[in-house]
Amino acid sequence: MAVSPPPTRPRPSRRRIIVLLSVLVGIAVVIALTAMIAALTVPDDDGGNDQAAAAATPVITDQQAIDIANTLTRSMFEITPATADAQIATFKANACGDLAKDGLPNLVSFTDELKSQDRSAAVTFQSVAVVPHAPQAPVVQAIVASTWQSGDALNKTRVVYDVIVQNGKTCVTRAQFL
Hints:
5 helices
């Protein structure tokens, strides 16, 4: 009996190697794409800082907006020679931003005129309302409808105030007279 040589593996063909490499590359691409999609779709976890930032946003209540709108309106339209300086101080305390910068010279001029003529101005409120807003809104709008009188002049005003929190202080940054 003749002894046959042990079986040998056939030599891998070039075609088999190319197919094997193509399969490995395809699997690597699928794994890489899956990892990339997973990384892009997972929400960022910053240790809850988003919630802390939302909680740190100052909340302006409707009552605060109404109170500051009333106070600011009184400071501009309810003036006597004796209270003029106090009303200017009230305006300064409750106005900020552009309103403080642009409105103060006008108020000082108006109060100086009233003092020089020994006249007064009085205000009557018709209505005060707050425009609906999100609870964490950075700006709350308050609308004041009032009538103010000085001497024979009777003026009806409608003012939309933008109430904000600036440097920890609730103030009015803009007044739009309608």
